[in-house]
Specification:
alpha+beta; Alpha-Beta Plaits; five-stranded antiparallel sheet; 14% strand; elongated
Length: 242
């Protein structure tokens, strides 16, 4: 008579998890949540309040954008045609020229702004639109009307600067193709940070509820006493209040 041995070790004490055990675990989890619901609610309100306060304390910013078209002037022949870069390369080069100190200084002088060119540069960005000869230029400011005026001034100033550079490079043309007509608020409003705060509140509140439950060594029902002592309960003496 031969005994067939299994390759996997057999746990004779625990065995495979039973469906009843999973139900009991879920029931215990829900009991803790219902018992400590006030902890969960308090943490959610706290996190939502912090998110709301932080959002309201931040200064609203606005962004205005324009599109500049980079091309070649008709009827011009550059003297260095063999080294003429492609329009794609030229667009990337012009994007760097838009977001530069000479343009910022010219805009500050033109609009008589009470800010430094460095401040304008810090809030100015230029990005070539892939596959095209357009450059999208954006400016962020706390004043929507000022943001619109600054970005339009950047476009017109850059176009004039390109047309006034040395004759050897006057084949390049920069046109303010799409000026800014308005400035849009930056950010997604209050809904997204509050929703994120509520989710974080649920996670932290649930963890805190289980911590408090683990630190609580008192019992609140005959069933809990039976689980702790392992002895069945035959009777309960009620509490009388006079």
């Amino acid at each position: 008579m031969q005994l067939k041995m299994s390759d996997e070790p057999v746990n004779r004490l625990s065995g495979p998890p039973r469906e009843e055990d999973e139900i009991v675990s879920l029931k215990a989890f829900l009991q803790v949540i219902f018992k400590r619901w006030w902890v969960l609610l308090a943490v959610m309100i706290l996190f939502a309040g912090i998110a709301l306060g932080s959002s309201l304390m931040q200064t609203q910013q606005y962004t205005a954008s324009i599109k500049v078209l980079i091309g070649q002037k008709g009827g011009t022949e550059p003297t260095y045609a063999p080294s003429l870069p492609s329009l794609d390369q030229l667009t990337f080069t012009m994007a760097e020229a838009v977001d530069s100190r000479p343009i910022a200084e010219a805009v500050v002088r033109e609009l008589d702004l009470k800010m430094s060119p460095d401040y304008v540069l810090a809030n100015l960005s230029a990005t070539p639109v892939e596959g095209t000869q357009f450059i999208e230029v954006s400016y962020v400011d706390t004043n929507p009307d000022r943001a619109r005026k600054v970005i339009n001034a950047v476009g017109s100033t850059f176009s004039n600067e390109v047309s006034e550079i040395s004759p050897s490079t006057n084949y390049v043309a920069a046109t303010l193709w799409e000026p800014a007509t308005y400035a849009a608020p930056v950010g997604s409003g209050l809904l997204q940070p509050i929703m994120l705060a509520l989710v974080m509140g649920v996670i932290v509140g649930t963890g805190l509820a289980f911590v408090l439950e683990a630190l609580d060594d008192s019992w609140h029902s005959p069933e809990e006493l039976e689980q702790i002592s392992g002895v069945p309960t035959f009777g309960v003496v009620p509490t009388f209040r006079l």
